[in-house]
Amino acid sequence: MMAEAGLVVLACAAAVFVLWPLWRPVPAPAPDAERQRLLAAREAAYRALRDLDLDHETGKLADGDYAALRAGYQAEAVAVLRRLDALAIFERDAAAGPEGAS
Amino acid sequence: MADLGRFALLAALVLALYAMAASILGARTRRPELARSAVHGLVAVALLEAVAAAVLWAALAGRDYSFRYVVSHVRDAQPLIYDLTSFWGGMEGSLLLWALILSAYTLAALRSIGRTRPPLVPALTTVFGGISAFFLFMLAFVTSPFATSPFPPADGRGMNPLLLNPWMAIHPPTLYLGFVGMTVPFAIVTASLAAGSVDGGGVLLARRWMLWAWYCLTMGLMFGAKWSYVVLGWGGYWAWDPVENAALMPWLVATAFLHSVMIQERRQMLARWNVVLVILAFGLAVFGTFLTRSGVLSSIHSFTESSLGAFFLGFLALALVAAFALAAWRWDELRGRHELDAAVSRESAFVLNNVLFLAVAFSVFLGTVFPIVSAAVAGRAINVGPPFFDHIVVPFAFGILLLMGIGPAVAWRRASPGGLRRSLQAPAAAAVVVGLALLAAGMRAPGPLLAFALCAFVAATVAMEFAGGVRVRRAHRGESPLRALLALVAHNRRRYGGYIVHLGILLLFCGITGSSVFASQRVVTLAPGEAAAIQRYRVRFDGLSQSARGGALAITAALRVFEGARDLGPAAARRNLYLTGDVTTDVALRSTPRDDLYVTLAGWTPSGRATLRLLVNPLVSWMWAGGAVLTLGAVIAMIPERRLMPRAAPAFRGAWSAGE
Lengths: 102, 660
What we know:
The structure holds two protein chains of two kinds. Chain A is mainly alpha-helical.
């Protein structure tokens, strides 16, 4: 009898723990796919620049190739940063609402 | 007690199903409280599984023979530590361990990803809930660890004596950490695809989890090899056994992924390929679990034949179909943003490396399932033995070794011919010098000559990478060589941790080559006082003795080992005979960096003569040292690097600066 009572208590405790959030509404997380994609692109560009510098300084990459590749990566990094800035402005305006944005 | 365990598993199953349903409903109806409730469901699943595990451990430690599992794996004469480790010594307990580890990973992943990518959490909860539900269903309805007997025996049967060994105590949990660890990258990738958060299919997020799972699988394989070497008494550590292969296949695919994901990080290419690799690695991990438990293949490691195979195959098919369907759905969004710039580049080397790893994995898969396929097609199970695997795998292994040397020497995107020549000159010279030195020392076999020369080539490339980095750092900062080296590794952990892992693999490769090609063996029958020589060792047999050890009759051959005139001391080779009919071997082992002297007692006569098997296995200790080096490299590579750049400033000239 005691054992059955223990199992009932365990079941009730589990049920309360699992269902508790239904009585405590939480804000929906904002979709962040674009932001995450841009952050990943930024990290990729930085990492590529760092590797490029190391490859050049250790003599694996010719000067001409290095300059051309670096210019390409720099342009990519700048473009990503601009889009991140634009997204941040958009998110700030959206969070402020119509009055805040005006 | 058993009721509590059964109830905990059943309740956990219900909650895992609830977590699945609530997370799907929460995502569809945009009700975050449902998604949060689903996460609570998985937390409760973990707690209930912990309760079930505690019940089983208590029954094992208390030798409660009303549990059938306890009867099968515990006996009064068995040391308590092995009573406790028998938790994963049988089918039911090991599946409970699977579920328990999965829950631990689930909570860690939900916590980590919930902080950085909250929108992914509902889909992740669905995937984790689904996988947990499968294992809990198996535990609750198919193969329960809590089955009881109304008439408990006075004593149990105990574990197979071969498993009563410290290496076997840690081998399964380490291997499971790797197998189950493959679930996390799979869950992240499929959840990303399902949620539409397809920045590379969630692959980059999955990388660190895959690295951990890969490391655990590596160490699990090494612990298993060590157990095989010191316990089975056959003198080897790898037999291309189906269950060994089952762990090797996901390891190979994960290794390929850890290389190709670097291309995705830097060039935003190969996202589709990486998604496929993550799904394959998980599929092979489940397939390995199926092989171990289905009884379709005979293996010294597998559990007894059971009906579990059909369930595992069904689950595997469902998971693969669902994952590949998601990948197909997002296929266009996973398109790479770049193409390969040049045929000779780091990217090309990694692509080729992937091809070779996948070729090895496919060959091993083919050889492993061949008995099943041949039985289905020809009605007769045809086993392919180690020669098949050796012939297929060894050439690929040479190719991989060569790429390990060339890869670091090649620049990303485009290698300049001059730079490549400069980078490869010294390593090529090192390979030639080592090859010539070995020739001069009398080595004539072309395979080992090539293997050791290639190892020298790779080691020199790695050394040059360190030297080049130190040189650049010193030029920028004027640091001492040691400080520059430490700072270089500290600031570029993934890169240099990876190189250290390569050094560990080299040691492993040398050990495998040395021990598999140059091992020598003699079988001798000696009377007390007689001695036999093998290579530089002489082993004297001093007599037999009998004793009772751990419930077995132990027959011990007392030995004395000499190297030339030098007395290396006593040694003992033993056979343990159990009443159950099991026989185990205690090896007389003397290990040095150069070679292992390995002596087993093969037989004896009533007159006191002993038949001894003497082996000298060169370079075996290099393999175990390789495991330690590999651990160092993996730990360094797993420590998170701090963000490469501050939030605002772009990285222009000098971004690398030899370590920021």
